[in-house]
Structures are given as C-alpha cells and as structure tokens.
Amino acid sequence: MDVHRDIEGLTAEEAVKAHRQDLEIQDKYGVNYKKYWLDEDEGAVFCLFEAPNKEAGEKVHREAHGFTADEIYEVKEGE
Amino acid sequence: MDVHRDIEGLTAEEAVKAHRQDLEIQDKYGVNYKKYWLDEDEGAVFCLFEAPNKEAGEKVHREAHGFTADEIYEVKEGE
After folding, report:
1. Between A37 and which of A67, B6, B74, B75 could a Cys-Cys bridge form, CB atoms 3.0 to 4.6 Å apart?
2. How far is A10 from chain B (nearest CA, A)?
3. Coil, helix or strand for B29?
4. What was the pLDDT predicted at B79?
5. Which DSSP symbol is given to A30?
6. Residues in chain B within 8 Å Cβ distance of A19
7. What's the sign of the alpha-carbon dihedral B26, B27, B28, B30?
8. Which residue in B36, B39, B74 is closest to A73 by CB distance?
C-alpha cells in the first residue's frame, strides 16, 4: 500500500488517468496495481499493489506519470 | 480509510482481535469496517470503512479497543 499526500488540485479524473498509465506499463516490473482510493479534498491517494518489492511499485509510478508515493508499506490483508 | 502508525509490537493476531471487536459494536454507530491491511514491521494499519462521518469510525475504534487512528480520510474507490 502506498500513500500519496497533499497533491494540489487532485481530481478523480486525473487519478483515473494516472492509474491507467500504471496499468499500461506495470507488467514490465512485475507489478499489479489492484485498487486505489482517493480523497480529493485532502489530495490523498492510497494505492494497493502487488509487487516483488516496494521499489518496483515506485518505478511504475515514476515511469507511468511521475507521481511517486510519499510512503510505501508492505501490507498483508487482515482476516 | 484510516491510518494507524507506529503501533509498538503490532501482531497480526492482535489486529484480527481488534477488527473483530470493531465488528461487534459497529452497528451502534452505523459503521461498516470492511477491510484492513497491516504492516507488522512498521506497526501500521489501514482500515477501510463506511460510515456516516469520520467521527463515527473513530468512536467504534475507541469503544471497541481504544486504538484510534492517527489520520482519517474520506475516500472514494478509484475506477
């Protein structure tokens, strides 16, 4: 799970576009961006992805649109 | 989506227990704790919930087990 904070002027449309850009190139890094949630007012986005490691997820964001996350956590889904 | 940070000694078992405690009382506040993800090494937990407002989600956590979140975001799931 990654966390993007304080993105100025974040809109749902821009997030949709960025997410699609991730999906287009993610296979190259063995990454699967599965879901994301956004808070437009706060400019926050949470991206849930599967990847060999945190860096692979970051590489996808950087290459796809340049919006890298502020934090990345290696999470397991709770029961 | 709420974010809990730097929980010392966080274990998956404790998170399971806390989540069940949320589920037991959440109806009282009209809340639905749907999923959560945890990073044991970082002591971080992300809880995805539906609620009338942020405060309702906080009340459930406080009453169920006392572990309130550090941040709460009103998120929409991305397309």
Report:
1. B75
2. 13
3. helix
4. 87
5. T
6. 78-79
7. positive
8. B39
| Tokens matching residue B56 | 């309702």
Please name each of the domains of chain B with its CATH number.
Answer: 2-72 (3.30.70.3090)
In the block, which residue shows the tokens 């009209």? B30
Cα–Cα distance for residue pair A48/A57, rounded to 1 Å:
10
Block residue for tokens 């109806």: B27
Amino acid found at B60: V
Q: Which of A18, A11, A77, A72 is nearest to A44 (CA)?
A: A11
Which segments of chain B have a pLDDT < 50? Answer: none
Percent of chain A at pLDDT above 90? Answer: 99
B41 by Cβ neighbours in 10 Å (0-12 / 13-18 / 19+) ranks as: exposed
Q: What is the ipTM of this complex?
A: 0.95
Residue A23 half-sphere exposure toward CB, CA atoms < 13 A = 10
Whole-number Å distance between alpha carbons of A64 and B27: 41
